[in-house]
Design brief:
The structure is a single chain. By secondary structure, the chain is an alpha/beta fold. It has one domain: NAD(P)-binding Rossmann-like Domain (Rossmann fold, 3-Layer(aba) Sandwich), CATH 3.40.50.720. Helices cover 44% and strands 15% of the residues. Strands 3-2-1-4-5-6-7 form a 7-stranded parallel β-sheet, sandwiched between helices. Helix 1 packs across helix 7. The structure holds NADPH dihydro-nicotinamide-adenine-dinucleotide phosphate. The site of NADPH dihydro-nicotinamide-adenine-dinucleotide phosphate has 29 residues, from helix 1. Keywords: Oxidoreductase. This is SDR family oxidoreductase.
Amino acid sequence: MDELPLVVITGASSGIGAAAARVFSAAGHPVLLLARRAEPMEALGLPRALCVAADVTDTAAVARAITRAEAGFGPVDLLVNNAGMMSLAPVVDLDPGHVQRMFDLNCVVPVLLSRLILPGMLARRGGTIMNVGSIAGKTLYGDHTVYCGTKYALHAMTEGLRRETAPHNVRVMLVAPGMVDTGLLGNTGEGEVLDAYLAYKKSIGGGLVAEDVAAAMLHAYRLPQHVNLREVVVAPTVQDA
Ligand code: NDP
């Protein structure tokens, strides 16, 4: 049987990215895993996995990691732009550093990393980029102004890039999860905003588990190259917001 191609996943040290790493690896793909913390990626214990501790805003470091991974496993066939950050607060209370980091990580990085692998995909007339957006890129939620802004922007750029690459048979997909039980709340400080989020999360049974999203990703990716499931919105059935 032919070897399955290389999958690159950013933000693979926790949550959705770690689940995607497990699911794509279990499906037989070699994986390049990127996040700042190496230990949780290595602890996944996946075969044919290159775990690289890198800040994905350091595009040169990511480029070096991709070169190493491609030397061992062949060209990247799927890039999952998953690394992201959410800091919730009314704008007046939001840490200015968090504003910048959310835009850098949620918007700028997916574009710059796509630029790294696109020339190869365009030349091969195949490959997939999967951007992890959010239902917060479709609907405004209280205290989510900047986070929603980053995800609305990412959704727009995902569709724009899809149109650019469509004539070259390269797929660009959006995966937009609803509430998922992960470490994403780690940047929202204690107080009313966090309490309200947690109360809603509890009221809907805690949200999806990350593996639910990873399974949807694998399903979308496994469709034949001529089929682009452009947008996957995956949320708890009982989530009404
Ligand atoms: P987590 O906080 O569990 O995971 C975020 C991941 O991003 C971690 O692996 C983290 O690793 C990595 N990361 C953060 N900053 C950087 C950086 N500068 N460089 C490299 N890696 C970085 O959250 P989720 O799994 O929930 O989030 C994954 C994606 O899913 C995000 O884009 C998020 O917006 C989106 N999403 C999540 C939803 C949810 O309810 N959980 C709903 C909708 C969308 P490390 O700290 O080791 O660098």
